[in-house]
Amino acid sequence: QVQLVESGGGLVQAGGSLRLSCAASGRTFSSYAMGWFRQAPGKEREFVAAVTWSTGSTYYPDSVKGRFTISRDNAKNTVYLQMNSLKLEDTAVYYCAAARFSAAQTMGVRGLRGADYWGQGTQVTVFS
């Protein structure tokens, strides 16, 4: 059973940085894509970033490109989301996701349908 456990959320001032972590267990993830999604109050869950586990290739939507960086540590089975230059509109619950037999761009293009497993989420609140 795949388990994804997020950590690292919290309060941060606009313009600041935060790093989220997602500890993955239960499988060998070499054929997976791993990603981050977020959901703000009253809005649909949206794609934020993805990484192909085997190659490290990444994919981002324009809303976060240049500000967010996704990476993975194979030895620790952990995926990170480094968020810089945070904006008020980045406030949301951030979810880690995993997709079997997938790649970063595929996960991004398919959106919610591209994820097979989800973490419980971690809150990120950006204040002015």
Outline of the structure:
The protein has 128 residues and is mostly beta strands.
Describe this structure in words.
With 128 residues, the chain is mainly beta. The chain has one helix at 104-110; strands spanning 3-7, 10-13, 18-25, 33-39, 46-52, 58-59, 68-73, 78-83, 92-99, 117-118, 122-127. The relative contact order is 0.31.
Oligomer: single chain
Let me know the average pLDDT.
96
Instruction: Give Rg in angstroms.
Output: 13 Å
Approximate helicity band: under 10%
Shape: globular
Cα(first) to Cα(last) distance is 40 Å
**Mind summarizing the main beta sheet?**
7 strands, mixed
Strand fraction equals over 45%
Count of extended strands: 11
List keywords for this structure.
128 residues; mainly beta; seven-stranded mixed sheet; 1 helix; 11 strands; globular
Chart the SSEs and their pairings.
Blueprint: E1 3-7, E2 10-13, E3 18-25, E4 33-39, E5 46-52, E6 58-59, E7 68-73, E8 78-83, E9 92-99, H1 104-110, E10 117-118, E11 122-127
Parallel strand pairs: 2-11
Antiparallel strand pairs: 1-3, 3-8, 4-5, 4-9, 5-6, 7-8, 9-10, 9-11
